[in-house]
């Protein structure tokens, strides 16, 4: 597995709880505001979309690019963060 950011490590190390969408790896303030404006205000709401898309890498990355204007690296980082979290907790 490739090296992960501290943000990724922190997110995957504990239950989701009520974390902000900006706690997800790859999601900073700008993307966080864009997601929030579309109703994706919490990390668990983005997780829900990830699960609706059946944890499919390509579909999730395309969705995040379309909804929030994420670039490929941001979308991939967010996908990997949610994927690793699911491996740990689901």
From TrEMBL:
<dbReference type="InterPro" id="IPR036617">
    <property type="entry name" value="BAF_sf"/>
</dbReference>
<keyword id="KW-0539">Nucleus</keyword>
<dbReference type="Pfam" id="PF02961">
    <property type="entry name" value="SAM_BAF"/>
</dbReference>
<protein>
    <submittedName>
        <fullName>Barrier-to-autointegration factor-like</fullName>
    </submittedName>
</protein>
<dbReference type="InterPro" id="IPR004122">
    <property type="entry name" value="BAF_prot"/>
</dbReference>
<dbReference type="InterPro" id="IPR051387">
    <property type="entry name" value="BAF"/>
</dbReference>
């Amino acid at each position: 597995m490739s090296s992960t950011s501290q943000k990724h490590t922190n997110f995957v190390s504990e239950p989701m709880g009520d974390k902000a969408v900006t706690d997800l790896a790859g999601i900073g303030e700008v993307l966080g505001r864009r997601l929030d404006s579309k109703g994706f205000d919490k990390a668990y709401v983005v997780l829900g979309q990830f699960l609706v898309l059946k944890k499919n890498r390509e579909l999730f990355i395309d969705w995040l690019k379309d909804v929030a204007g994420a670039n490929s690296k941001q979308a991939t980082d967010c996908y990997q963060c949610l994927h690793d979290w699911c491996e740990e907790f689901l």
